[in-house]
Structures are given as C-alpha cells and as structure tokens.
Amino acid sequence: MVDAHYNEPRLVALYDEDNSGRWDTDFYTGLMGTEPLRVADVGCGTGSFAVLLAQAGHAVTGIDPAEGMLDVARTRDGGELVAWLPGTAVDLPEGPFDAAVMTGHAFQCLLTQDEILETLQAVRSRLAPGGTFYFETRNPAARAWLDWDSAAAGPEVQESSAGTLEVEWELISVREMPDGVLVTFEDRTRFLADGAAFASRSTLKFVPADLLAQLLQHAGFTSADWYGDWQGGPFDPAASREIIVAARR
C-alpha cells in the first residue's frame, strides 16, 4: 500500500519543497565517485536525485511504486535522461548495475524481515561484481519518533508554492518487536487558500544494525561500510541517529 502523500497530486507537488536538503544525496554522490556508472535508484520518488545522477553522466534507472511520484519524475527538467519504471526492487531489470541507491529513508517502508531480505536479494542479484548498494535507515536507539507529534505545540504554519499551509503530526503507535520497532504516525496538511485538507498515515520500521548486518550477509553481500552521519562519521550503535550503509556484492 502506497501512502496517500505519495499519490495525492497536491501533496506530491510539495514533495520536493519538503525534502529540499542535499546532505544525503551529496554524500552518496561522493561515495560513488566521478566515473560513469550504471545506477538503479530504488524508491526514486519525484526523481530529483536520479536526474542529478544522469546529468552527471551516469546511466540511471529510477523505479518507484507510486505513479503520482513518477508522473512528476517523468516531466521534470532532465527527466528524459532517466529510464522510469513503476514497481519495487523486485521489478528492476536484470542490469547489471554498478550501484543502487535507496534514499529518503525509503528502506524503512519495508516492514518485515521477509520484505527487507527480498529487497536486499533483489538488489544484490542485479549488481555487477563489486557493485554497491547505498541506503540508510534511522537508528532505533535514537528514538526519532519522539519528535513526530505536534500536539503540544499545535499546528505549524508554513509558506509554500501553493500558499500558506497548516501542518500537524500525530504519533499513533510505537510497537516494540523482536526485530525492531514499528512506528505509525499521521501527517495532516490543510491548504488555507481553500480549506482543502489531506491526511496520510504511514508506518515505518526501525531495524537495529546488528540484525541488518545479518540480513545483508544472508542476502549475499560480502562486505559493508557503516556510517553514522552525513559527514561520514563512524556508526555508533548507541548514539548515531542514522545507520548509513554501503554494501558490496
């Protein structure tokens, strides 16, 4: 099931404004280097990173399960440089790809060990020997979900290309599982110009690094580099907010 904010046109139109930071994509670009590569962008969203990679000389395939996102990706400036496909990692062409990326914490939309393993195996099977899968997931030890509720502060007023918005968040549930934490939350957006309101409920999985390492090994990856922040600092299981992985076939 694709969350509503990935297909509702008025919310999709604001996606790039809400996610304009480049710290993650700049980091991955630096790790990939300057030589032209064959790259799969898994969960490519509106395609901003895929297009940047293509404009830098890489041969890029972007894939996403949300048609609303792909509609934006196909029509953005430079969109003709990328091969766009609907689907998930299991729907990728055989490749081979030199690199695969999964940004925007899209990895956390995989809610079970089976889904995670299926994705890891699908990506690995399409990588060339020595190819690398770059992705990130939030470290459950940092408990980022504690900031995902605006009840105490009230709705936040934001200015956007669509006018003034009123945005709020509600933390619905936090479920401690043997293999991580499942967090469900809802974000609500109201367009003050006409009063139109939209709500989107999402569930994300927070996987501990030790289990993730086991799943990577099970999927057949031979080694991995682990980072704890977007400056390339080492991963600290107790303190890092991010688990950033560069896993090699």
UniProtKB/TrEMBL annotation:
EC nos: 2.1.-.-
InterPro entries associated with the record: Methyltransf_25 (IPR041698), SAM-dependent_MTases_sf (IPR029063)
Cited SUPFAM superfamilies: S-adenosyl-L-methionine-dependent methyltransferases (SSF53335)
Uppermost EC category: transferase
GO biological process: methylation
Gene Ontology molecular function: any one: methyltransferase activity
Keywords: Methyltransferase, S-adenosyl-L-methionine, Transferase
Pfam families tied to this protein: Methyltransf_25
Domain called Methyltransferase: residue spans: 39-131
Protein name per UniProt: Class I SAM-dependent methyltransferase
Source organism of this protein record: Arthrobacter citreus
